[in-house]
Write a structure and sequence with these properties.
Length: about 80
């Protein structure tokens, strides 16, 4: 799969990484691709685990629907079963 990422988004993620490096805080990723992967992983974890801290992100983005599988933790990503 290939996804087009808008240049403005890439610049913002570069800036986030720059600020983290400058601050001395632990880096969430080494590069923009890794940071995008980190953000997408947080959304996916929020979908599969209602008790995770990431759940709030998925909810605020409107990605949690009124369906049983969104209210029960799942061990794997993707469709249960």
């Amino acid at each position: 799969m290939q996804i087009h990422i808008d240049d403005d988004i890439i610049r913002e993620f570069e800036y986030i990484l720059k600020l983290h490096r400058r601050s001395g805080q632990p880096l969430l990723a080494e590069n923009v691709e890794g940071l995008i992967n980190y953000a997408l992983l947080a959304i996916a974890r929020g979908s599969k685990d209602p008790d995770s801290w990431e759940r709030e992100i998925a909810q605020k983005l409107g990605l949690i629907v009124d369906h049983d599988s969104h209210y029960s933790p799942r061990g794997r990503f993707g469709k249960p079963g």
